[in-house]
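retry 2 of 3: previous attempt timed out while embedding pyridoxal-5'-phosphate. Reduced batch size to 1 and resubmitted. Inputs unchanged:
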Amino acid sequence: MRPNTAMPTDHPTSSSMEASSTSVFDDIESQVRSYCRNWPATFTTASGSTIQAEDGRSYLDFFAGAGALNYGHNHPVLLDALVDYLRSGGIVHALDMHTAPKREFLTTFRDRILRPRDLDYKVMFPGPTGTNSVESALKLARKVTGRQHILSFTNAFHGMTLGALSVTGNSMKRNGAGLPLTNSSKIPYDDYFSGATEDFLWLERVLGDSGSGVDKPAAIIVESVQGEGGLSAARPEWLRALSELCRAHGILLILDDVQAGCGRTGEFFSFEESGIVPDIVCLSKSISGFGLSMALTLIRPELDQWEPGEHNGTFRGQNTSFVTATAALNQFWADDEFAAGVRARAAELHAGLAQIASGYDGAVVKGRGFLTGIKFAEPSAASKIAAAAYERGLLVETSGPEDEVLKTMPALTISSDELVSGIDIIAAASAEVLGAPVYRGEGSDVRGSDVLDGDPRGEESK
Ligand SMILES: Cc1ncc(COP(=O)(O)O)c(C=O)c1O
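retry 2 succeeded.
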């Protein structure tokens, strides 16, 4: 473009004026943008659990890139590995060709994650995001079984592409599809009927009744903790019963660990506590460790029946992601020390949230590990508290069909001091929105008291 010679040289150009404003986002970025509406700062740098904004403000991060930053922002060990690799002239993009970083990642993932857990999975690179992993899992389940139907759970969230949306619960997101979402049905998640109905009663009956008119599904897809759907957490015994039901009826079990995996619940896979071995596992978000895009689909070897190239995509071989993923596995998963620390700090987080919840009638702690929050009696309270927390310098989001749960998801590397600061901000924001807490005396209204004894599992998650 030719310079505008009519413009006085000391007059700020439109681009220099825009450099410090948010007008360009309003002008040309699509209406679909969302997080920036609640957190309108323009962010510049970040380290660990702290993010800096252009206006000089600093924010404590209880959001962690929606679970993509389990090891915090710019972890120095991962950053060094990445910068060294880039400076060495290492290949960045390679589709699914052989590369040294991919070899190292697969070797490390096998040796640090799969073998110590006695897990035998083939590793598929389905595309860069969680929804790519879910799509590949659904396709493979249909191909292997020759059946079309997939069952998923009330309030599930599995991604935004059409297959993943078809197994997602949220009506606003589903309506965005613009066409009927078929070949899937919803069944009740753990405790959907608050204990009034026996688990899997309906499913057991209809699957065993050739006159029920219910076709046998190819697969059931489940999250151990419903990260977007309101932080309900499945009990280990419920997951075991689900796994047994799938085995008994020849239905594949897909465990979507996109959000709850990579250590978020205090173990690498969120299903480890239950002892189940899913047929297919979806992983993404924090698998690269650095916020770089990457996803895996783990497949029981006998189910790996793809034709070469039957599922592919341009961005499945980001070597920068392999490099940081390998560094993260070596740094944090060589032994149980890191996971034990996560479990200890998760107990502190649950205790802090339980203390806040105990001051408000009807408030309960939900979730598991570092994927936890508070559901207040008034559904609109969580969004207001998140907004008040932002004003006080904390990034914390909401979850659930009505955004009724205040959702905390700090980096797993957060310090105890930072954790306490964040909990204090949530307490102050809650008091600002709901009024001063009222404690009703010993034992009467303290929820999640089990977690105060060190069990990082909230009351509603049983
Ligand atoms: C459980 C679960 N599955 C799938 C996805 C989709 O992942 P992505 O946003 O990377 O497509 C998400 C995203 O939040 C998720 O929480």
